[in-house]
Amino acid sequence: MLRGVFRMAGRHRIPHCLRRFSSRPVGSEGGSVVSAFGEANFQTIREENMFYVDKTHFAADLLNFRRAVLLRPPRSGKTLFVDTVDCLYDVRFEDQFDDLFGGLHVGENKPQQANQFYVVKIPLTAVPTSNLGRYEDAFHDCVLGGIVEFLDDHHDILEKLRLSDSDEFRERYRGDSSNALRRIRNIVGADKLMVLVDEYDRAPMKLFASLAPKLDRNDIAAALEPVTDPLSGLLATLKSLGARYYVTGIFTVPGLALSIFNDNEDLTHEASFAEAFGMSADDVRRGLRLACGVGGDEAERAVEFLRKAANGYNFFGCTETLFNPQLVHRFLNDYNSKGYAEQLPTDVYDHNQVFSTRGLQIAQHDAALSSMLLKACASGEAFTGRVATTTTILSPTTYLFQLGVLTLDRQRVEYHANKEVELVVPNASVRSNYAQAFLEYHIGQFGSASAFLHNPTVASLQALLETLMAHQHWGSDQTEADLQALLTAEFIVFSQGEAGAERDRIDCRVVVPDQCVVVLELKTVSGTVAPLRASQSLTKRSGDKLGLSTADLGGKYSEEGLNLLAQMSSEEFLSVDTIYIHKQQKFKTVGDVHQLAEEQASRYMAEEGERQADTTKLPVLGFAVTQVANRCHVTRVEN
Predict the structure, then answer these.
(1) Mutual orientation of helices 325-334 and 281-292 as an angle, nearest 10°?
(2) How far is CA 575 from CA 62, 383, 534, 572, 591, in A?
(3) Who has the most CB within 10 Å: 15, 144, 156, 361?
(4) Does the structure show a pLDDT above 50 at 4?
(5) What DSSP line would sit under 538-562, residue for residue?
(6) Mean pLDDT, all residues of the chain
(7) What sign has the CA pseudo-torsion 389, 395, 400, 401?
(8) What is the tens place of the pLDDT at every residue in 8-39?
(9) What is the pLDDT of residue 446?
């Protein structure tokens, strides 16, 4: 998340109004422009002539709404936007308007109410959730911190309060931030007060992630009440003030949807605010020119690289696909120092952009979605889902859309809460980050694919599979798709090229750049489930003999059975009886199933060979894998 430079309150801090700025427009041709990577303070960006994409017309349009909420994914520029709104409307910046906004949209089209408000910023980024018993006090302290900073910036209000300093105000209202806000409203007047709440969802979603593995999704709202109750109180207070207030965040918090969206204008899916965050391709070109001195063909190569690594975000109503601004700023920051003119990087990395295992814990409430998502990461294909923002239960699809792991597959999509839309993974950075988090969550590590991709052999693939198998708890609900998901995640992280299933035919295809194309055909034979007649399983006799039978679908195989399976010789393993039907043909042993895998792999290799003959001419390597629980049989397939 973009973290603003929220200056600490203190009587020795220099007030904003006393600072001096360059009158040169931000990003002007006449000065040395630098990347704004990591900077979310509008004033600093102006003062230091950093590259800035003009979003001030959205700040001006915000005044068309008295109360509004606007959600966007992490690192998209929300805190910078909040700071821009503060500079545009707070009275303390009135004398600096031309310096701050000269050359920008609002500089040429000054809003009538510019610098006519007293603006209180309340960043809810630092409220701890480790001690829920003291959370409410910590929450009030955080809100009071924003009010105290406001008082330090507005000495005229301190005088009207008849206080010597802001610390006295803090002590008077400790634990009672609602009345503190009312006191400020009474002094400045409701029509002159504006409150900006940034990252309203930080603490609830942190707690949500920690609870997600333990609770049913329908119980989450009640479990979050220790942190959502104080937040609901703040929202109710803001509404009662009669003042303007605006709320930003990432997620719809379970249990808070009604108080957030029913009482405020939801601008999240408004077409007029669709491009309030993010960069266009022309913005990226301008940044390359101003911050890096790059144009022409060199700039176009950089833009094309960023299209794959940092582009792809479509919000409801947008007319142009957007780039992630922090990844672009990271790229601009590193362009000259890391020699990107000679050699572009393989990816753009920002540690704040990495998908966390906590995030995956929330997404894992829907196992089918996880499978679809990995497939989308691997193939780039779209799948159907519903984005329901104003709901009391946050669905995994909505969560991943709000997180920026999923986005719309096209522009100009109108929002309807109950309408399904086509969703995709936006870019290579997100694909790699999600796949890495998936592996860390499921097997506690990642990186086993590196040796195989460096030297694709039966032995290196067998070693990779053994690592993946060792970290799973195999049961009767595992299918070929589970093995495919684990392999796909590994290959996405380490192939630096194309990886994943293709055209619903090849189970796994990996392009190792400048080396080869690997084609894998996977077959899974399950154990037996007492009440079910399976079409791709062991026979009941084999399942019972090996201890690979369960009473219910999803039951776990016995440790004795898994150990017995692992100790079998290859000859014994391949001779195990199966009931495996494929296209009305029956395969009676694991060996027969594996032969089918080899035949299909050989056919796909031939098709891939024809494609390579017309394109990059890479050699094609084929492997067949047949899995029974924690045991895999691997062979190299010749075309």
Answers:
(1) 30
(2) 70, 39, 19, 5, 6
(3) 144
(4) no
(5) E-HHHHHHHT-EESSTTPBPPHHHH
(6) 86
(7) negative
(8) 233 233 333 333 333 344 454 434 799 999 99
(9) 54
CB-based contacts of 527-533 (< 8 A; 24+ apart in sequence)? 527/476, 527/557, 527/561, 527/628, 527/629, 528/476, 529/476, 529/553, 529/555
User: Of 275, 239, 328, which Cα lies nearest the Cα of 51?
Assistant: 328
- Chain centre to alpha carbon of residue 497: 21
Residue in 320, 623, 293, 603 with CA at minimum distance from that of residue 453: 623
Strand partners of residue 313: 322
Contacts of 152 (CB under 8 A, 6+ apart): 9, 10, 11, 13, 15, 166
Q: Is the dihedral of CA 131, 132, 135, 136 positive or negative?
A: negative
Residue labelled with tokens 């006519």: 116
DSSP string of 386-454, one letter each residue? E---S-SS--HHHHHHHHTSSEESSSSPPP-TT-EEEEE---HHHHHHHHHHHHHHHHS---THHHHHH
Q: Provide CB contacts within 8 A for 363, sequence distance 6+.
A: 369, 370, 373, 396, 399, 400, 405
* C-alpha–C-alpha distance, residues 557 and 339, integer Å: 54
Backbone angles phi, psi at 623, to 5 degrees: -135, 145
Q: Considering only CA atoms, which of 14, 13, 244, 2 is closest in space to residue 119?
A: 244
Count, in order, helices (H) and strands (E) of the chain: 27, 18
Cα separations in angstroms, 532 against 14, 474, 547, 586, 588: 74, 18, 17, 18, 18
Structure tokens of 347?
A: 């990816």
Residues making up the chain, counted from first to last: 639
Q: Please give the structure tokens belonging to residue 322.
A: 């957007």
What's the predicted TM-score (pTM) here? Answer: 0.79
